[in-house]
Structures are given as structure tokens and as C-alpha cells.
Amino acid sequence: MDGSGEEGAAFTTRDVRDILARAVALRGITQTFLADHNQARDDVQKALSVVRTEAAQQELGAIPLSRLKDVTEGRLRLGAVEQAGYASVRDVLRVTPYTLQLIPGVGQRSARQIYAAAQQIERAVADAVSIRIDIDRQDAPTTDLLKALKRLVNAGPSLERAHRLAGSTEARLAAALPVARPARSRLRMWFAGAEGRRRAREAVHEISSLLSEATAADARTLFAQASVDLLRPVASDFEAWTDYEIQSPEYQGLLAEIGGIEPDRPAAEGFLSDDIAERVKAQELDDTHRTVSLRGYQAFGARYALAQRRVIIGDEMGLGKTIVAIAALAHLKAGGGKHFVVVCPASVLINWLREIERRSTLKAYPIHGRDRAAATAEWTRLGGVGVTTFAMLDQLELPAEVAVEMLVVDEAHYIKNPSAKRSLAVAEWCGRTERVLFLSGTPMENRVEEFRNLVAYLQPELLSKLRIGDGVAGATAFRKAVAPVYLRRNQRDVLDELPQIVHVDEWEEMSEADLAAYRSAVLAGKWMAMRRAAYAVPAESAKLERLTEIVKEAEENDLKVIVFSYFKDVLAAVREALGPQIHGPITGGLSAARRQKVVDTFSSAPGHAVLLSQIEAGGTGLNLQAASVVIICEPQVKPTMEAQAIARAHRMGQVRTVQAHRLLTVDSVDERLLHILEAKAELFDAYARRSEVAEGLTDAVDISDASLARQIVEEEQRRLALL
To answer: Could you give the 3-state DSSP secondary structure of residue 602?
Structure first.
């Protein structure tokens, strides 16, 4: 401090005053945001408390009075109370002990014991009650809960980052500002003494560093925008439920976090040993380059991949293995990593490209197809994620100075045969890459020899500990034995809030045969032929290949599947591809009684089964909740038709997450159709949903078949004429 008489001072008194003024202003913005954030979470807690109470009351109403004997080891006599009309534990809790003792035959001591036993059950139910948001039961308490959650959900993944930064900023400023205060003037510094002056200078330097960090992170804008998001007007009931249907995983993730209703810890951690679980939880997970929030079990999966370095994540389909991998890549990017590789079947390459760029700030490059040389050159130069196929991996060459930070292998069971060409290519890349992540939704417990082959790529030193008979001991015992290299979680273990809908758009590149059939249909101006051209040559259909993979994975996980298409001949192609043991198809020509019989046979079939249905015939009027995987073969002209079809499975009685897969091809009628429908849906969001009569306007997002067909056919004819 200039004129302070101390050596080594870096700031003049005027500098200090400016620094402290800026720090106080920053602290004000920080505290405002933290207060807004705390209020938003408090609102969720209050709404959740009401929902919990109602859910607990419903459960208590279903518990018969006789269960009070269990609490007191059979000592209570309840005959007189039952004769007085008390049938459930809830009935007892709705009165007082005094009311109970007025019942003939019930003394004061018995009344107190009965009431105390009921309270004990009430506490147990309150601790264990599960919260399930049911779109078929939109009661007021749940609606209020969704409204409270909506503010936090719509603030987006940056909210978590803002809160973390605000917390550390407030803590540092709260500690440093009082200590730095004497540095505002030379007189105060003189009275502070030598030790006080030293501490004041250190505090000023700390605050100056903090301000530089805050500027680099654009903290002021981040906090201010977050506060604006948290203070948006309360949504209408309809908006809250509509947003929940679109973003249910985000709502459920927040609900689990705020309500403390995350799943059982050992299950969410894949039954790992305590030492591995603790090491994984100690692993940091940087979200700077991630644009999606993670569920607790997903964050644990990403940490596991980072901490263990070379592993298999075998979570059941529908749990978000792709997001787990992207979270790990984003963390490594934040740490300075530049180049990453994803290897996958050709049928999911487009999905990987889109998911990486949707869920993170990483740039993804398709190392596949005609332009792979140019994509490889740009990826090599700029860094990012190179996404390639098993067939192309052995042709991917990089300069010696380019280090790949992580290799991700999707559908890793494709390389279970170590002598196959693609397996040898993966093995060569595993040998030169320090971090490797295999993904597979196929359970390994009953395929120990295949599992050993995968481990040989990752941690061959573990092979001596894996025996063919290990799977016989059961899934949990198997997972504990292979914990250093294998993590698997099942839906029923980690998604307590079931059911929900997971929407997956499966983007495929057309095969040569698909493209030839599509060109022919476009040039002829045949709208319906364009829509089903991807199935014209079943043996070479990219969509049919992906559909078969989804059904195969569902079979491995013992899940039932419904396949919807508008077209009978598409369903015929699907039947031919999947084999004879297929139920249906349900078509418009079947009587109602016959349709129901087909559904009943499908629903009662043990384990995995597949049902085919025309979307108009099976999309309404039938309950298909036995299925938890829905495949829609092509996008529909009317979005409500798709929604109704999915709703056949996602309804009362469904006990598993519903996975809705929509098969799409790039640069085709599918993509044009979605663009038009999305634009119309945005108009619907902007106007119709603000209306009090919006719920009656479901057809507002549908378009005339004829006008849409004419528009898209003309656009595609012009586009293809230029190729």
C-alpha cells in the first residue's frame, strides 16, 4: 500500500478501494442469487412435503388395523375398535387417544398403546414412502410440485455450476473482506499493527485473484441470468405437466436430489466393494464442457470410468450409458484432453454425433463414409471426438504426436470374438490408449467366457481371478467379484420414480439400396413410397438393422417390445427380419375382440416378446403396459398419433421406464418432416399453450397430409436434382 511503510505492497490505496468496491458489488450479486436459489429449493421442499404427506396417508389407509398387533408383538386387543368402524391405521390417526378410550371396551391405557402403535407405523411409512409422478393422475399437490421444480429445471445445467461457483465465491469473500478492510486507508493500516497489515495485504491479493477468476468465468452474468431464470412467472398447470412429459428425467433427477430419495446406495454403486466405491466417489467430475445434468447414478458411472481408467459399463438399456461416456469425455476435456475416439456400429454413428454435440461443448467428427479423410484431418488438427465404426477403425491413422485421451467402444459385445477383424482392431487401439471405456447393455452375468474376452482388452491381469462358474453365484456376487472392471445397474434398482418415458431418436444413414429406393420414390413424386423407402430392400435396410439391434438388446434384458408403423408392408418386413415368434400384427382389419386377444397373448407371454401394430390401429383404445420398449418405424404426420401410441404402454399399471425409439434417416423425408412439425410446435408453444383452452387443442400441432406431402416432395425433388 502506497505510503503504508511496508515493503512489497502491490496496490495503492486507491487500487484497494476499487478492488474492495468491486468485491462488495460481486458479493451482493452472489448473495442475491444464492437467496433466490435457496428460495426455489425451499419451494420444492414445501410442495414435496405436501405430496409426501398425501402419499403416506394413502398408504396408511391401505394398512389394516390388524397390523398394529405386529408393532406390539400381538399384545393389543383390537376387536372393540374394529367393531366401532376403525378399519385402517389412518382411521386411528385421524382421532385422538381420548376419542379411542370412549369406545366401549377400550380403556385409557389401551387407547394410548393403540395410538402409539399407529404413530410408529406412521413414522415408518413417512421414511419409506415413494413419490411417483403419474401423468394420468394430475392432482393439485403434484401439480404444485411440478411448478416448483420447473423453475430449477428450466434454469438448465448451468444452474448447478452457478451455485457451486457462488458458494465458493461467497465463502471466500466472507472470509477475506473483513480482514482486508484496514487496507482502505493508511491510517487504518497504521492502527492495524504489523500482523494486521500483513493479513490485510494477503486478503487484498486473495480478493484480487478472486475477481480475476470471476471475470474469467463471467460470474456476474452467470449469477444474474440464473436469478432471472429462478424468478420467472409461475407456470400454468398445463405448462408444468407438458414440460414434465418432455423433460421427465431432469425433473426426476432434481426430485431425487432435493427430496433425498436417491436409490439404494449399494445398487446405485453396482454393488462395488467399499474401497472401490470410496475411490470412485473421491474422483472429481468437471462439468465445464457438459451441457446436461446427471442423475446420481450417472455421475457415479462417469467417476467410475475415470477412477478405474479401463472398464466396462453395462447398465441396463434406458439408463443413459451414452450420457455417462460423454460426461467422462467432458471431464477429460476440462483437464486439457484434446483428442477422443468413439467406436460404434454404423447404425448408431449418427446418434453419437448428435448426442455429443447436444450434451456437451465438444466437437464431434464422423470418421466414416465418403468424407472421412477430410473429417479425420480436421479432427486431428483441432481436436474433439472422432466417431468411427468397427469396420473403419483399422483404417484410422493418426500422427505419432497425437495422443488419444479416451477410447469409447459402444456395443462392446460386438468384439466378444477375439479373433474377428474388428476385435483385433479394437485390441490394437486399446493397447495404445491409456483410458478405455466399453459400453454394453447386454448383461454379462451368464456369459462369463464372453466377459473374460472383453476383460482381456482392458485389464488382462484380472483374468486369473475370473472363472467360468462365477456367474452361477448370482448377479450381485458376480458384480462384486469383477468390481475393478465392470459396473452394471438395473432400472428397478436406480429409478425409484418409475414410470417415465425416455425418448430416443435413432438417426441412421441410408444404405445404397435405401438411397436408390428413396431417389426413385422422390422422382416419381410418391409421398407414401418416400416415407417407407428405408424398408424397400429389407436385407440392406439401415433402419431395419438398427431395429433388430434394439429388439436384441431388449431380449437380453427380458423386456417386451411394441413396434409401430403406419404401413402394413413395413410391419411385414419387420416380421420377416425378427422371425416367426412375433405377435400380431394388429391392423385396422382386425375386429376389436381379435385385437384384444392378440394383446392379451402378448402381455401374458413370459419374458421377452414382440408385438407388431399399425400405429392407427394400436395407438388408441388398447392397454399395452406389458411393454416397456416402443419402436416407431417412421415419423408420423400427426405428432399426436405418436404420443397416443407411446401412451398405450406408458400408462397406469406400467412398472418400468418406457423407452420410445423413433427410427429416422438423415437427409430424407424424415428430417424434412420433423423440421416442419417442430416449427409448428413452437408456434403452438408460443400461442396455444398460453390459452386457457389449450388442453382442447391437441390437433393444433397436426398438419394437413396433402399440404405437407406436396411441400416435402417438392423440396426433396429440388434437393436431389442438385446432387
So the answer is: helix
